[in-house]
Amino acid sequence: MSIVKSVRHDRRLAEIMIGAPAGQPEFSEWARLLGGDGAAIPFLRYLPERLGPLGARVETALRGRLGEAPSFVAFEGYDTVAVLAEVLRSHGADRARIAEAWPRVAVEGTRGQIRFSRMPGISVRQWAWTPIQVVDRDPAEPDRFRILHAG
Known about the structure:
This protein is of the alpha+beta class. The protein contains five helices and five strands. It has a three-stranded antiparallel β-sheet, with no helix packed on it. A two-stranded antiparallel ribbon has the order 2-3.
């Protein structure tokens, strides 16, 4: 946050666009501590444009517990537990059986169907087709997010 404040208040850097790590500006503390300085800073958010039925139910439950809209990190946490529970339920706790299971894992997550694959040049399996948004906080309403790109 000190970098954001420094860049925003240095006139020599007025034309510089800064970005932020995935998710950091999504937390309410970002807006609270930075105010308008925290707006118009693009970052990645791993959410679809619209949540499906499971995502909507989880969002409602999380909003009730948190008192605010959940970040995509909360959905990632839910999805992680759902994937691990399914793998353990279907393949047991044996490490070799779990390792063999990853190519066949298919779990309905809060942000869509989760499947793991290997991408060229990457040696680990990952959810390669997660929904992605590039968003920022609206300078006119820092509590509102603008979707700049979705893919």
